[in-house]
């Protein structure tokens, strides 16, 4: 009787019974191990990603295809960051959000960030003209004002501007004030979105804020409430027998272009001789809304030039016609940022009007909002913008033609606004100058 041997075993003399029993035990263990490996490699469930893991992959993909500076990916080992994120235990949406935030942090761009569902909903509502909280618009600023390419310990969270008629405005929190703590938690430790989230809350609740306006830390107790943005306000001013229109835009939300159009038509119907456009404490908002307002004030002139991830420049020009063609002057300050800087820069570079006030904030990056499909979203920096003359204002801001004296009024457009009085007299000088030259 012959004995058949497995094909993978070499031919050898018959082994003693004890040796055969030992080999049979080891062979069984080896076969079991090989079967386990085969099952692990062949099981589709082991390779499939969960919904939470898919969220991380989708966030990586969206940033990868749209971020303005792809060279930054090489510096931070972008593909490795995705792998490290997926190596984390991810079994819930919160786990995925933590992984995405950790993945984005090395980019060093505070404006490219995850927006958790509550943050995403609040940001979208603010672009539609309403917000709930204390009315602080905040941003990240380099204390040395040298570079925004990398997030360093020199960065700080500062107030871009308080919203008009908000708890922050009533507490006289000025633009440029550093935000140190929220309810005892370090602001930089919370991060930009975390700090914004900590400031929000139900109407009637209170929040303890520690700030530094340059004269040392101080604590403020602010009561949250629903803040009506009222982004467009207008009225007539009378000065030395002349009628001047006053148009204040506090944010570029969706309704703003149509509201500005209506306000300009009303002012023109009242025979204004000049117009003061007030962009103080306008921290931006929707770039598209700011461009639409620029289109109403510039007749076939360049508005802005954007530079995308490929280094390609796309100039944007206003269409023909003006809603108002008379003399203008624009008020700006350190709270004038982003979309409002695009408008101010276009007006200045084209010689449409002079700027008065203080140097603007200096945010020359453009973000887009992208939904992740689970009520969360991403804000991704997709372009840089240059003014029509080619100025890059990131971290530099725009210098006004007329620097107005300190202290800066804390209630723009309200009673005792000395800068508005100064602007009215500057504009009046333009109205009477032609008569003097004649």
What's the quick description here?
With 438 residues, the chain is an alpha+beta fold. The chain has 13 helices and 19 strands.
**Number of strand segments:** 19
Strand order of the largest sheet: 10-11-12-15-16-19
Helix content: 25-40%
CATH architecture of the largest domain: Alpha-Beta Complex
Number of helices: 13
How many independent structural domains? 3
**The CATH top-level class label of the largest domain:** Alpha Beta
Rg, Cα atoms, Å: 30 Å
Distance between the termini: 130 Å
The geometry reads as: globular
- Please name the CATH topology of the largest domain: 2-enoyl-CoA Hydratase, Chain A, domain 1
Structural class based on helices, strands and sheet pairing: alpha+beta
**Major beta sheet summary:** 6 strands, mixed
Mean pLDDT: 84
Q: Which strand-content bin applies to the residues?
A: 15-25%
Low-confidence spans: 1-46, 144-153
Instruction: Look at the structure and name the CATH superfamily of the largest domain.
Output: 2-enoyl-CoA Hydratase, Chain A, domain 1
Characterise this structure.
This protein has 438 residues and is of the alpha+beta class. It has 3 domains: 50-108, Transcription Regulator spoIIAA; 132-146 and 155-227, Pdz3 Domain; 230-369 and 379-433, 2-enoyl-CoA Hydratase, Chain A, domain 1 (Alpha-Beta Complex), CATH 3.90.226.10. It has 13 helices and 19 strands. The strands form 5 sheets. A 6-stranded mixed sheet has the order 10-11-12-15-16-19, sandwiched between helices. Strands 1, 13, 14, 17 and 18 form a 5-stranded antiparallel sheet that branches. A hairpin with a 5-residue loop joins strand 13 and strand 14 (313-317). Helix 5 packs antiparallel against helix 6 (93-104) and helix 10 (256-269) packs parallel to helix 11.
